[in-house]
Give the backbone structure.
Amino acid sequence: MEPNATRHERAPSQLIGGWEAGLVSLLVLLYLGGAIVNPAFFGSAEAFHALLRDTSRVAIIAVGMTFVIVNKDLDLSVGSTYGLIAVVFARLFASNVLDLNVLTAIILCLTLGVVIGLANGLLVTVLKVPAFIATLTVLFIGRGFVLALTHGQAIYYPGKAKEYPLFFHLGETNVFGFNNQIAIFAVVAVIGALVLAKTRWGYETFATGGNEQAAVYAGIPTNWVRIRAYLISSLCATLAGLMSAAQDKGVTPLYGVSGELTVIAAVIIGGASILGGRGRVAGSCLGALLVVLLDKVLREGWPITRTVKIGDEEITVNAIFSLPVGAVPVFLGFLLVIAVLIEPHLIRRQVATRFWAWICGKPPPPAYEIGGVALEGVQTKGAMATDTAMSTTTFGRFVGRRDSLAIILAVLLWFTGVALRPDYWWNLSNSFAILLNYTELALIAIGLTYVIAAGDIDLSVGSVLALSGSTAAYFLKVLGADPFTAIAMGLLAGMAAGLVNAVVTVGFKLPAFIATLGMYYIARGLAAWFVAGQQLAGWPEDYNLLGRKVNDILLHFGLSLPSGVMRSVAEVVSVQTIWMFFVALMAGAVLAFTPFGMKVCATGGNIRAAAYAGIDTNRVRFIALMLAALCAAMAGIINVAYFRSFNPVAGQFRELDAIASVIIGGGSIFGGYGTMIGALAGAAVITLVRALMQLNVQGFTMPQHWINVFIGLILIVAVLIDIWVRQANILAHVLARLARMRRGKEIAHG
């Protein structure tokens, strides 16, 4: 063979390979480490059996997620689907609720799983909603349903379960000495591995994820392939939910919380590429085992001895050292980000293989192709151009603006409140109480407008709010710091989170939604960690002035306004509202009237064209993500002052509200457009919707959990309006058709 002859490389196996062998070695070392640290737990056969049992459910969901990620998509809804299925089964089956038989309950749960999978698939493929937005919204809606259906309480049915031993034996140990869930997992894993590696379905999945356009040219129905993957993912989550219901003979509202993070981390650690076109079921299952093992090592802690003094006698007692509350989500968030970084920087570059070839003096293998943006959606189509007048009239020009819908909706919702409860709505103090709730959301939406206009997304703003508030509360209550130090440290913590988001997104070229999804869990975990999962309260009133009315601040400094309009306004207007409008004014002026604002929209509209035009797009995106974190941090500082306490759940669902606010306000989910007036109006719409749904009308008030479901639906509708009314410009096409029809009639009658 001639030296310059072409070498034919053998195609890598789609069933198992060297990466899986490395995972097995790592698992063995990790388990041995756990056995050394905590031999009482990890040194027993029961612990290993429990590890395999608990891994079974996660791994089954990971099998379905592998199809989705190889497809170059993402499914953030699997955790809430898992929890929702278990809750629905409990309500259908439990004798104190609907009291149906087990077969009927299973069939209805499977039907629900199919509906969720179809909804995800159709939203992403037919309706062109970005996968992370579609499945994130389904996640929040599903979580709202879980909390609403359980009313925050556990549902158990051990007595009735005895009547159906065949089904409930699935969660128990069989005659061979191992749990039946392990056997179910083995069957699902083998079937999934063979389908992905050896069938046409698998070939179509790899082709679609590797290059969707080329797959279309090859005659592959890529839309159906992607829908099919979401169906498989949802059905795997459904099966896991039913297995959990069989094992526990009950359900709690916490089922499935953070499940999507664990599953995605497992699939990525297993060697799948977030860029699509690469992944193996065997690797995903081993990744699930690794993640569950890490979780157990962290949660179980390790034995220690403590000396307790009783009177004059010192007694040595055995104890277990456990990590603080919130530490596990922090670790899993870091694990997700690191796992996503491993694939493009180590696996695709074949660092280990190249190093071994260098050691052996052999030529290095060719690197995999690196490129593309994960989960790339529809690009903005004339976002700026669509902001044109529909006519020469003033009203026509207003209606033609992208943010006009939010302004009109805000006005209509306000008058709806007046019509429903004029006694409440016309009260000045009540009106400004609504404005206080609006302030926090509006402040977050200000920063998020820059991020979305620049073509990115930040899913961590609610958690950054909690992190900043937790830091300030910790310095005030635990360390006894002065208010200025507490504010500075809270802002610093929020900016540090924003810096991590920006560095990982811009510096390491990760999709923003993955980087900020990791920070979503990291910041929320740190917030709980700092306060040990408890609510803190009781600090100097000087700090609380940030959340007080203007008149309260004047009285604090010994000043008193005379009776009149000024005093009435000062008694209801809060300093945080004034600060929010000041920030909005500056941010709006920069976005609308400065070169940097034009660079933000240019970057989001077409990042490659913007780079060719000499714009430093990395710098623009970096600043936008930092600004979003700063605004969220300011909201967290004010939240602590307003409530005079800190609760670890602060800022929950705020990322959903903020994204909906920006999109309702005319911002494009694909980047390239955004106005501060629109974002503020969108925030007003969300705030008024929440206020109206919480309004007591003739003794009826909607529970909070159902409100979150409704807000999720609003976000989906807002995104669909952006795609099909604004981006596709359907309204202009309809008006043009009506104009042609009118001209045709005039010619016919002429």
Notes: The chain has two domains: 18-162+184-296+329-349, 438-692. Strands lie at 155-156, 250-251, 302-310, 313-321, 536-537, 645-646. Confidence is low (pLDDT under 50) at residues 1-9, 369-390. The CA atoms of residues 454 and 604 lie 4 Å apart.
